[in-house]
Specification:
Blueprint: E1 3-6, E2 19-23, E3 26-30, H1 34-41, H2 57-63, H3 72-76, E4 79-83, H4 88-99, E5 103-108, E6 127-131, E7 144-147, H5 154-157, H6 161-182, E8 185-191, H7 218-238, E9 242-247, E10 250-251, H8 262-272, E11 276-279, E12 285-287, E13 289-290, H9 291-302, E14 312-314, E15 319-321, H10 322-333, E16 339-343, H11 358-364, H12 372-385
Parallel strand pairs: 4-5, 4-7, 5-6, 7-8, 8-9, 9-14, 10-13, 11-16
Antiparallel strand pairs: 1-3, 2-3, 12-15
The structure holds nicotinamide-adenine-dinucleotide (NAD).
Length: 398
């Protein structure tokens, strides 16, 4: 084996004959491993193939006892793929992973996000950006995958519903195929929408939901349900190491200001001094989780024991009516906006939503720390700091 150490800071996955991996800015080149590549490791996401070998080549290099390093940090670094990594949640997750020193690959097609969310990471040596659509296959060597790519706001996912369900289902198949091929752990971002308009309140993971399979939200709800099915089928059939989290309403800095979601709408309207428009009578309830809490939950779930694949609810159980939210936004932003009833509730809009987080508390030791008032203050500050003219609405019907 030849182990080369160079000061080149750029990580390269495969060169013709040499595997190279960078850790802490140094590149290790392991010529001996090129034989495994020739034996067929890099043949694509072929579902039928049985992959030889215990692990990905990157982690093989790191775990190889022949690697002559005394620095334990080098052996801890994981190569982590975040799909949808330029989005609202994904960009915060990338921040945490980059700060932790992991080797982060962000994949995004920028449908509902823009580079400004991750621009501060572009010159970090352990961060890499790939513009890619997850409905197409992707060949990478990674140890962990956070699969977040999917439009999440109703106005975004209903714009092109067929593409939405393709993103959920084909995206999941492609990422699971990748996870299977390189033996990576994969966490899938599912949603409280799998519970539909719930008849059980609050919603535990055991509740199977009340989803209208042919309604306007079905492209998202059923797409996410099918993706959960795929996750568990890949676990049962192929032994893929999976994690499923069901995320409830999350808010915070870097939400798309034109995503049409209730928190961003209200803050934008309040700061502009416009009427705050609530749908229905405003008595429908939601729970709101601050983004930092949510990201902590994602990280804990990825690190949870392998015999706990989920699904697990992640959300803040504090329940508020939409009118209470509007009143708090007006108060905290010092706005003179009036709260008005703008229109009827959209079709299939759930009347109440509140996570039961008993499982997350017990299995992950996780619960949210940031209350709604504090989280809204931070979010309002961010909205004040941005130039709205720099954001384009991803779809006309936000
Ligand atoms: N924010 C929430 O309240 C919430 C709640 C439940 C579930 N989730 C889930 O969490 C994930 C992230 O949500 P978010 O709030 O950050 O939304 P977001 O729209 O800000 O982020 C989604 C990202 O995925 C990208 N994307 C969309 N389609 C893609 C494709 N085909 N290929 C590659 N990239 C694609 C978008 O450009 C965007 O950057 C989603 O899967 C969403 O369903 C979020």
């Amino acid at each position: 084996m030849v182990l080369g150490l160079s000061a080149n800071l750029k990580r390269e996955t495969v060169k013709s004959d040499i595997l190279s991996v960078s850790v802490c800015g140094f590149r290790f080149e392991d010529v001996s491993l090129c034989s495994t590549e020739k034996a067929g490791r890099y043949q694509g996401n072929d579902e039928k193939r049985e992959e030889p070998g215990p692990s990905t080549r990157a982690s093989q290099v790191r775990r190889d006892s022949r690697l002559q390093t005394q620095d334990p940090r080098l052996l801890m670094i994981k190569r982590i793929l975040v799909t949808g990594g330029a989005g609202f949640l994904g960009s915060h997750l990338c921040d945490r992973l980059v700060e932790a020193g992991q080797d982060v690959i962000c994949v995004d097609n920028f449908f509902t996000s823009q580079k400004s969310n991750i621009i501060h990471l572009l010159d970090r040596r352990n961060f890499e950006l790939i513009r890619h659509d997850v409905t197409h296959e992707l060949y990478l060597e990674v140890d962990e995958i956070f699969n977040l790519a999917c439009p999440a706001a109703p106005g975004h996912y209903q714009y092109n519903p067929i593409k939405t369900i393709k993103t959920s289902v084909m995206g999941a198949i492609n990422m699971l195929g990748l996870a299977k091929r390189v033996k990576a752990k994969i966490l899938h971002a599912s949603t409280s929408e799998v519970y539909g308009d719930p008849e059980v309140h609050p919603q535990p993971e055991s509740y199977r939901g009340n989803v209208n399979p042919i309604g306007p939200r079905a492209c998202y709800d059923e797409g996410k349900r099918a993706a959960e099915t795929l996750m568990f089928d890949y676990r049962r059939q192929n032994g893929v190491n999976i994690r499923v989290v069901r995320i409830f309403n999350t808010y915070g800095p870097r939400m798309h200001p034109y995503d049409g979601r209730v928190v961003s709408n209200f803050i934008r309207q309040a700061l502009a001094g416009e009427d705050i428009t609530i749908f229905g009578d405003g008595r429908q309830t939601r729970s709101f989780c601050y983004v930092d809490d949510l990201v902590e939950g994602l990280l804990r779930m990825m690190d949870a024991p392998d015999d706990f694949p989920g699904p697990v609810n992640l959300g803040n159980p504090g329940e508020f009516t939409i009118r209470q939210l509007a009143e708090m936004v007006v108060e905290l932003s010092g706005s003179k906006s009036k709260i008005v009833n703008a229109r009827d509730l959209p079709e299939d809009d759930p009347l109440q939503r509140q996570p039961d987080i008993t499982l997350a508390k017990g299995k992950l030791g996780w619960e949210p720390n940031v209350n709604l008032r504090e989280g809204l203050e931070r979010t309002i500050e961010w909205f004040k700091s941005i130039d709205l003219s720099m954001f384009r609405a991803p779809t006309p019907n936000y």
